[in-house]
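Subgroup meeting minutes
Present: P.N., E.W., G.H.
Scribe: E.W.

1. P.N. recapped why we're keeping a running log of single-chain structure predictions: easier to compare across weeks, and new members can see raw inputs and outputs side by side.
2. G.H. added today's entry (140 aa).
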Amino acid sequence: MDPDLLRTFFGNDRFAAHVGIELLDVSPGRARARLEIGERHLNAVGVAHGAAIFSLADLVFAVASNAYGTVALGVNVSVSFMKSARQGVLVAEAEEVSINPKLATYLIRVTDEESNLIALFQGTVYRKRDALIDHMPAGD
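Output recorded in log:
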């Protein structure tokens, strides 16, 4: 699928926009995004909330798995948090591990500005027959 069209489609992800996630790179089976940690992303002990980190990883998971132009929906994910982050920028990179007509699996690495591993996210999607473009909002 055309990367610009994919960016437009995922630009409509209102939750990712609300969190402050910026999509950087897109290609079939791969995606990269960033999140600048702000006060609103911190939990009660002052580190980046797991939900903020998960949301960053989940967006690149969605983009990478839908980049072929067919609807792909998550059926299973797991996340392991390796290190906390209090400030700065986090980057999530999705890499396709396997794909077949119905299922695909992705590994997402979330790192900080010093390339420290913050989290590992693994997810599997179910690949539907629907074309992603059929789900674009009218006017796009």
